[in-house]
Write a structure and sequence with these properties.
This protein is of the alpha/beta class. Helices cover 33% and strands 24% of the residues. It is elongated. The two termini are 30 Å apart.
C-alpha cells in the first residue's frame, strides 16, 4: 500500500530524506494554504504534516475522505481542531521533545537580555552612542522566578535558573510534590506566585482555561516592577493588559517571542515600547531543533500509518504499540461486553460504570473504558467508531462515564465489569480471559455464566421449570436452527434463569415470535457478537 502525505510548511532536509527513502510513501509540499484551500486539497491524503502557518479546521476534516493521521511538527496544537479530528477518528500527534532544549535556551536568552538591556544597548551603540549608565541592569542571582507550567520546557528552564542562583516557584496543578523536590523548586498557587516573583516565565499549554491567564486582574496581584517572559503561546497573555501594565510602571519590562496575532502587525503598540524585547517566534528555531522536529514527525507519521506505533499521539488512549498488542485481547473482550450491553438494553444507555481488576488491566482502565464505549456505540451508530472518537461520540449522546469499585462480581485473576443504566433499568456484565486468549462472560446481573462471546446468540430470561430446554430446542429444530452451545444460569431452583444459546445460523423474527409465545419465557433478545 502507498501512503500519500501532504506537507504544508517547510520541513528539514533530514525529514524530507526519510520520506524520499520510503518506498511506500508519496508526498506533496504545498505552502501558503488557507483553511479553505487546504480543505480543497486534502481529499486523497492519508497523512497531513503542519506547523503553525495554517489552521486545520472542522471544514478541513469534513473534506478529508481518507485522512488517518495529522502530525504537528512542533509542540503547540492550538491551530488544529483536535475535537473535530477525534470525532472523525483521526490521530493527532506532535513532537513535544524535539524543540525542548531550544525553547528553554531561548527563554534564558530573553531573560538575560531583559535584565541587561542587551538589544537596547546594542541598538544605541550602533547608533554611535556610548551610554553605560542608561543601560544599567539587574542580576538574576538571588532573585525569584515564577514558572507557570512545569512540563518539559518549564523543568529545563527551572534547572537553568537554579544554576544562576535563583529561587524557583512554580504553578502547575499536575506537578507532584516528589518531582518538585527532585527539581528543588517550590510549588505554590497562582496568586502566591504572582505576589512573590521578580520574574514570571510562562510555559503553559493554550486551552480555554489558560487563554488570557495573564490579564489585568493577574497583573494587579504581581510585584511592582515584575518582568514577564513568554515563549509559549501568545494568547496566554492579554496584550492590552500587558501594555497598560508596562505603561503604568507596574511591569518593569517584558520579553515576548509569541503574540496573539502572528506575524505581529506593523502597527502593534508593543513595537513602540522601549522596555519590551520582541523576537519573531524564534524559540524553536535552531538548526538542531528543526532537524529533530522534521525527522521525528516523519518517523511518527510513518509508524502510525502502518499501525506500528502511536507515540506522542494526543487523542489515543494507548500510544505504546507493544502495550496495545499486549492489551488487545482485553480490549476486544471489553468491546464484546459493551456490544452485549447495548443489544440487551431496553432503552438508550445513559450511564456507564467501569471496574477492572487484575495486574494486567488494573492500570489500563482508560483504554478498557474506551473499548467498552466503542462496543456500546457500534451497534447503534451508522458511522465508524474507533478508540479515538468513541469518548467524543459518547459525550455527544449524553452518556456519562465513571470508574467505580465494589460491583457485585465474581473473583477472577483479571476481570472487566461494566454496569450500564438507562431510563428505568440497569444491567451489570462481567467478563474475563482464560489463559490470556479465551474470552468468557462470567456474570450477567445475579447470574453466574460461562459464555464464549462470539457469533449469533439468543439470550432469554425464563422461569426455571421442567421442559424449558426441550421445548426451546424443539422450536429451533422445527425452524431448522442448529444449536451450537447452550449455557444456563439460575439463581435458585424453580426461580428465574438466564440462557445463552449459540446458533449456527441467523434466527428469523418468525422463530423469535414463536419462542416468545412459549409462556415460561419472560424476554428474549438476539445478539451478534
Amino acid at each position: 500500500m502507498t501512503y500519500k502525505i501532504l506537507i504544508t510548511d517547510d520541513l528539514s532536509a533530514q525529514g524530507i530524506a526519510l520520506l524520499e527513502g520510503s518506498s511506500d510513501v508519496e508526498y506533496d509540499l504545498i505552502k501558503g494554504l488557507t483553511p479553505e484551500t487546504l480543505a480543497q486539497r486534502i481529499p486523497g491524503y492519508d497523512g497531513l504534516i503542519v506547523r503553525s502557518s495554517v489552521n486545520v479546521t472542522t471544514e478541513v476534516f469534513e473534506a478529508a475522505d481518507q485522512l488517518r493521521v495529522i502530525g504537528r511538527a512542533g509542540v503547540g496544537i492550538d491551530n488544529i481542531d483536535v475535537n473535530a479530528a477525534s470525532m472523525r477518528g483521526i490521530i493527532v500527534m506532535n513532537t513535544p521533545g524535539a524543540n525542548t532544549v531550544a525553547t528553554a535556551e531561548h527563554t534564558m536568552a530573553l531573560l538575560l537580555a531583559l535584565c541587561r538591556h542587551v538589544p537596547q544597548a546594542h541598538t544605541s551603540l550602533k547608533a554611535g552612542q556610548w551610554d553605560r549608565k542608561k543601560y544599567t541592569g539587574i542580576e538574576l542571582y538571588r532573585k525569584t522566578i515564577g514558572i507557570i507550567g512545569m512540563g518539559r520546557i518549564g523543568a529545563r528552564v527551572a534547572l537553568r535558573c537554579r544554576a544562576f542562583g535563583m529561587d524557583v516557584l512554580t504553578y502547575d496543578p499536575y506537578l507532584g510534590e516528589d518531582v518538585a523536590e527532585e527539581l528543588k523548586i517550590e510549588r505554590v498557587d497562582l496568586p502566591e506566585l504572582f505576589a512573590r516573583s521578580d520574574f514570571i516565565s510562562i510555559h503553559a499549554a493554550l486551552t480555554t482555561d489558560t487563554k488570557n491567564m495573564i490579564d489585568a486582574r493577574a497583573i494587579a496581584k504581581m510585584k511592582d516592577g515584575v518582568r514577564i517572559i513568554n515563549a509559549a503561546r501568545g494568547p496566554l497573555i492579554d496584550e492590552e493588559a500587558l501594555i497598560e501594565g508596562i505603561e503604568s510602571g507596574k511591569i518593569a519590562a517584558a520579553a515576548l517571542d509569541v503574540f496573539t496575532q502572528e506575524p505581529l502587525p506593523a502597527d502593534s503598540p508593543l513595537l513602540r515600547l522601549d522596555n519590551v524585547i520582541l523576537t519573531p517566534h524564534l524559540a524553536a528555531s535552531t538548526e538542531e531543533a528543526q532537524r529533530d522536529v522534521g525527522t521525528q514527525i516523519v518517523d511518527q507519521m510513518l509508524d502510525a500509518l502502518q499501525d506500528l506505533d502511536f507515540r506522542n499521539a494526543i487523542n489515543m488512549p494507548i500510544v505504546d504499540a507493544s502495550l496495545l498488542k499486549r492489551l488487545r485481547p482485553f480490549l476486544e473482550l471489553a468491546e464484546k461486553v459493551g456490544s452485549l450491553q447495548t443489544q440487551l438494553a431496553e432503552d438508550a444507555i445513559e450511564r456507564v460504570e467501569v471496574e477492572v481488576e487484575g495486574d494486567e488491566v488494573r492500570d489500563q482502565i482508560k483504554a478498557v473504558t474506551v473499548a467498552l464505549l466503542k462496543g456500546i456505540l457500534e451497534p447503534v451508530l451508522q458511522q465508524t467508531v474507533n478508540y479515538i472518537n468513541a469518548p467524543h461520540l459518547a459525550t455527544r449522546r449524553g452518556i456519562t462515564v465513571s470508574q467505580t469499585s465494589g460491583l457485585p462480581t465474581p473473583d477472577y485473576p483479571n476481570l472487566i465489569s461494566c454496569r450500564v443504566q438507562w431510563a428505568g433499568g440497569s444491567r451489570t456484565v462481567a467478563a474475563t480471559l482464560f489463559n490470556h486468549d479465551e474470552p468468557r462472560l462470567v456474570q450477567v446481573d445475579q447470574y453466574r455464566v460461562d459464555v464464549r462471546p462470539e457469533g449469533i446468540i439468543l439470550v432469554l430470561s425464563n422461569h426455571d421449570q421442567p421442559g424449558i430446554i426441550g421445548r426451546v430446542g424443539t422450536i429451533l429444530g422445527e425452524h431448522d436452527i442448529n444449536i451450537s452451545v447452550w449455557r444456563y444460569g439460575r439463581n435458585q431452583p424453580y426461580g428465574l434463569a438466564l440462557s445463552f444459546i449459540g446458533v449456527d445460523s441467523d434466527v428469523p423474527q418468525k422463530t423469535l415470535n414463536t419462542l416468545l409465545d412459549f409462556e415460561p419465557i419472560i424476554w428474549l433478545k438476539k445478539v451478534h457478537l
